Amino acid sequence: MNLGSSVEIITEWDIVAARQLGRNEAKQVGFGTVDQARITTAISELARNIYLYAGKGKIEIERISEAGLVGIKIIASDEGPGIPDLRKVMEDGFTTSGGLGAGMPGVKRLMDEFKVISEVGEGTTIITTKWLH
Amino acid sequence: MKTRIPILKLNEVLIVSIQWELDDQTAIQFQEDLLNKMHETSALGVVIDLTPIDFIDSFIAKVLGDVINMTGLMGAKVVITGIQPAVAITLIELGIRLNNVMTALDLENGLDKLTKELEA
């Protein structure tokens, strides 16, 4: 069973909308305050990356269940410039925006599963999951 | 949709209580408002209380870090108070360090710390 909702990221305000949606979903799934903060922060970072690098895109938030576990899946997708060097963006401290955004390694640490699919000139999709333990 | 964060003056200290989730515009407006208020009042210290805040992302952290450095340039000291456990955990996991920042558990301890610092 998948329950989902999504927010189009076009303006700064949509970043706020996406993280509020994420926090509500996380609360409803039953995550505690620390995990709620992790999920909210991860969504905020992903939405900001879309806003900064791609201009527009979408954050989808799904409640998932698998093998007796429940969790939350976030899909951040855009049709922006794509990431030329995936290894580099996964290094701590790498930035092309002058220090805005904590970057991908930070988001990866906040979540349980993290996958990036990116094609230069085509766009980027990031899929990240947090399980309720 | 523009909200401003109130800045209160108590003797030589400015007190700011951030009560709701900050959006980008409000955060940047706050930066400017605080520096202007310091200039107007010749305040020597600032306490920023974050007790109601349940998450801080890298952007808000950067604005806060910048405001602390800017305040330092103007000759005042800042104490950040009331950082919740969830906020502390996510900031560190995210890889954000607020270096050289005075912090305290709550507003009361923060004011004490600042007063001692200003007397020293």
TrEMBL record, chain A:
Protein name per the record: Anti-sigma regulatory factor
InterPro entries xrefs: HATPase_C_sf, HATPase_dom
Domain of life: Bacteria
Location of the Histidine kinase/HSP90-like ATPase domain: 34-133
Matching SUPFAM superfamilies: ATPase domain of HSP90 chaperone/DNA topoisomerase II/histidine kinase
Source organism: Sporosarcina quadrami
Automatic annotation (TrEMBL), chain B:
CDD domains: STAS_RsbR_RsbS_like
STAS domain span: 3-114
InterPro entries, alphabetized: Bact_StressResp_Reg (IPR051932), STAS_dom (IPR002645), STAS_dom_sf (IPR036513)
Protein name as it appears in the record: STAS domain-containing protein
